[in-house]
Specification:
Two copies of one chain form a homodimer. The first copy, chain A, is mainly α. The first copy, chain A, is built from five helices and two strands. In chain A, about 60% of the residues lie in helices and about 5% in strands. The relative contact order of chain A is 0.08. Chain B binds a DNA duplex through helix 2.
DNA sequence: TATGGCCTTGGAGCGCACTCCAGGCAAGCG
DNA sequence: CGCTTGCCTGGAGTGCGCTCCAAGGCCATA
């Protein structure tokens, strides 16, 4: 039934809950679902679009994720939070697959992303200021309203 | 021809470039396009979905935006940057239209948004740390690679 | 008077990031 | 053996936020 339900909405479990040591790191898709919060659909979709490295398979053809894959998914999750388009992440994944000679390009991509993140933080802080201003106003007006009601 | 082209990509012009004084504040849709960077399509769409207050019309039925409308669009732009869904902004717009007795609810909505923004900033700073770490690594490895090439 | 520019409308279309479906295989258990 | 559970696949569907289209009105300038 593909594990619908059990949406653990606890926002942020500790980074790596029950990760197994190198050598025995072989997780089924449903374990990865539990670790990452992504759905199995999404994990398979990431693979189809080339966002994942090659994923191991069991002798019956089922996916077996490694610690390294989990690390990659961590990074992808972080980049996703920055609003980076999936296509750009795929590009980065391609560069990684292409080997050492893409170091320079990867470096630039990361730096560009870093600049984006800084800009986004600045935007959000700007928005925060506006929000604080409005909230202050509402608190003020709300107090006046209460007084009026009471009067 | 609906003004396609002339994409002024200057990221952030001063807040209110050539705003007219109260009383003469009556802008055509294309002026608002120039001010906000939104398309005319989007402005009309915002209106259709109830995200805008009532917009004045000229005697021929064309939209005439006021300074107040521009302010509202400013706020909408800021909220958009936080990732707030348009539906939530519509809800806020509805509360404003409903009058003073929705003060409390609006206040709560703003505070919830504020909390979201803070959380998002924290996420981004977390991501920034990861990025910096990786960039440091790439800079290091890149230097080693250069040395190797030179040797 | 005709041409062009700017505006109007309802509704259809698009790109992104998933999300789900149908049909099927392999393993474990009573 | 039959049943359930968990996973597999290619492809279709969904929701959001625009984005565009076709057909037409108003008005200024040539």
């Amino acid at each position: 039934m593909e594990t619908t339900g059990t949406r653990t909405d606890s926002c942020a479990a500790p980074p790596h809950p029950h990760r197994r040591p190198e050598g025995q790191d072989s997780y089924t898709i449903s374990e990865v679902v539990a670790f990452t919060g992504l759905t199995a659909h999404t994990l398979r979709w990431y693979e189809r679009i080339g966002l994942m490295p090659h994923i191991d398979r069991s002798h019956t053809g089922q996916r077996r994720y490694s610690n390294r894959d989990l690390d990659w998914l961590d990074l992808v999750g972080k980049l996703r939070l920055t609003g980076m388009p999936v296509a750009d992440m795929v590009r980065y994944a391609e560069l990684v697959r292409e080997g050492d000679h893409t170091f320079g390009e990867r470096f630039e991509l990361l730096e560009a992303t870093r600049r984006d993140v800084l800009a986004r933080i600045a935007e959000l802080q700007d928005t925060l200021a506006v929000l604080d201003h409005k909230i202050g106003y509402y608190a003020e007006a709300g107090r006046a309203y209460e007084v009026e009601k009471a009067g």
